[in-house]
Specification:
Layout (H helix, E strand, L loop, with lengths): L4 E7 L4 E9 L4 H12 L5 E12 L1 H16 L3 E5 L3 H9 L7 E2 L8
Helix pairs in contact: 1-2
Length: 111
């Protein structure tokens, strides 16, 4: 089992950015969830997830982002995904999650 996900947390004045590198799948999703969910539980927080270096994600990853979105709404926080590669962005489009999750439409790779 190769766990291939690195999570870097970058604090800024008004927001927190999670910079992800690697793959989001059944093995790495718990790492993402453990890092992401607590950030969404702060009232009025802005949480940005930078997915530029994520080249693979499966449905387990989508589940983590759905949980994070629910948590953010419950705590009046904002969740935004940025710099998605085309193959990852396609997952959000196919499942129509792009209509409920704030996704920066600047798509990386495959352009």
């Amino acid at each position: 089992m190769n766990i291939n996900l690195n999570v870097e947390v970058v604090e800024q004045d008004q927001s927190t950015t999670l910079v992800l590198t690697g793959e989001i799948d059944a093995y790495t999703a718990p790492i993402l969830k453990e890092s992401l969910l607590p950030l969404t539980k702060t009232a009025n927080a802005e949480v940005i997830v930078d997915l530029e270096q994520v080249n693979y994600m499966d449905s387990t990853g989508l589940g983590v982002f759905i949980s994070a979105l629910k948590s953010a709404k419950e705590h009046d926080s904002k969740l935004k995904l940025i710099q998605l590669q085309e193959r990852v962005h396609r997952l959000f489009k196919i499942t129509s999650l792009d209509s409920i999750i704030d996704i920066d439409t600047t798509v990386r790779g495959g352009n």
